[in-house]
C-alpha cells in the first residue's frame, strides 16, 4: 500500500515536468518564430503561454500544501516557472535545465558559451551575456559554488528582473517552511 502513494507521486511529478517542458518548448518556439509574426500575434501567444505557466504554478502550490514529500520537486518546478513568468530567464533551455536540476549540462553550456565569446563567435553579445547571467544564477540557486570571477560577474550584471526572481524564490522558501511547520504542528496534535 505504501508504494501506491510513491508511484502516484512519481506519476504526478513526471506529468508536471512534462507539462513544464511543453510550455517551455512553446515559449522557445514563439521566440524562434518572433520574426514571422506580427507584434500583436507574438505578444498574444507569449502572454497565453505565460498565463498557462501561472496556472501550472498555482497547481504546484496546491500540491505542495498537501504533501511534504512532494515539496522538494515541486519547489524546483515552481522556481523554474517563476523564472519564466518573471522574465528573469529568457532562455528556455536554461529554464529546462534549471527545473530538472541538470548541473552538469548547465556547466557545459556555460563553458561552451564562454568559449564562443572568447573566440568572437557570438553574433549578439548582449544576448550571450544575458544567457551567461541566467546560467550562473541557475547554478547558484542549485547550490553550486561559483568562482570569484563568476560571483563578480553575477553581482555586477544582476538586474531588477533577477532581483524580482530572488524575492519570488524567498517567498517560495517561506511557503515551504510554513507547510513543514503546519505538518509538524498537526503531528503533535
UniProtKB/TrEMBL annotation:
Molecular functions per Gene Ontology: beta-catenin binding
Entry-linked InterPro entries: ICAT_dom (IPR009428), ICAT_sf (IPR036911), LZIC (IPR040065)
Domain annotation Beta-catenin-interacting ICAT: ranges: 117-187
SUPFAM superfamilies from the UniProt entry: beta-catenin-interacting protein ICAT
Keyword annotations from UniProtKB, A to Z: Coiled coil
This protein's record includes keyword Cell division: no
Pfam families associated with the record: ICAT
Coiled-coil regions, chain positions: 13-66
Gene3D superfamilies linked to this entry: Beta-catenin-interacting ICAT (1.10.10.490)
Family: Belongs to the CTNNBIP1 family.
Protein name: Beta-catenin-interacting ICAT domain-containing protein
The organism of origin for this protein: Brachionus plicatilis
Amino acid at each position: 500500500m505504501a508504494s501506491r502513494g510513491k508511484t502516484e507521486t512519481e506519476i504526478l511529478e513526471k506529468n508536471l515536468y512534462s507539462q513544464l517542458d511543453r510550455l517551455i518548448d512553446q515559449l522557445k518556439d514563439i521566440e524562434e518564430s518572433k520574426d514571422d509574426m506580427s507584434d500583436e500575434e507574438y505578444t498574444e501567444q507569449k502572454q497565453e503561454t505565460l498565463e498557462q505557466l501561472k496556472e501550472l504554478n498555482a497547481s504546484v502550490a496546491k500540491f505542495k500544501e498537501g504533501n511534504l514529500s512532494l515539496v522538494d520537486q515541486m519547489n524546483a518546478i515552481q522556481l523554474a516557472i517563476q523564472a519564466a513568468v518573471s522574465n528573469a530567464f529568457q532562455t528556455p533551455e536554461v529554464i529546462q535545465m534549471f527545473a530538472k536540476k541538470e548541473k552538469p549540462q548547465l556547466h557545459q553550456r556555460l563553458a561552451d558559451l564562454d568559449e564562443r565569446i572568447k573566440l568572437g563567435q557570438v553574433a549578439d553579445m548582449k544576448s550571450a551575456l544575458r544567457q551567461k547571467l541566467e546560467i550562473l544564477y541557475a547554478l547558484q540557486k542549485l547550490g553550486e559554488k561559483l568562482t570569484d570571477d563568476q560571483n563578480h560577474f553575477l553581482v555586477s550584471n544582476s538586474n531588477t528582473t533577477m532581483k524580482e526572481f530572488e524575492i519570488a524564490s524567498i517567498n517560495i522558501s517561506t511557503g515551504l517552511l510554513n507547510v513543514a511547520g503546519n505538518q509538524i504542528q498537526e503531528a503533535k496534535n
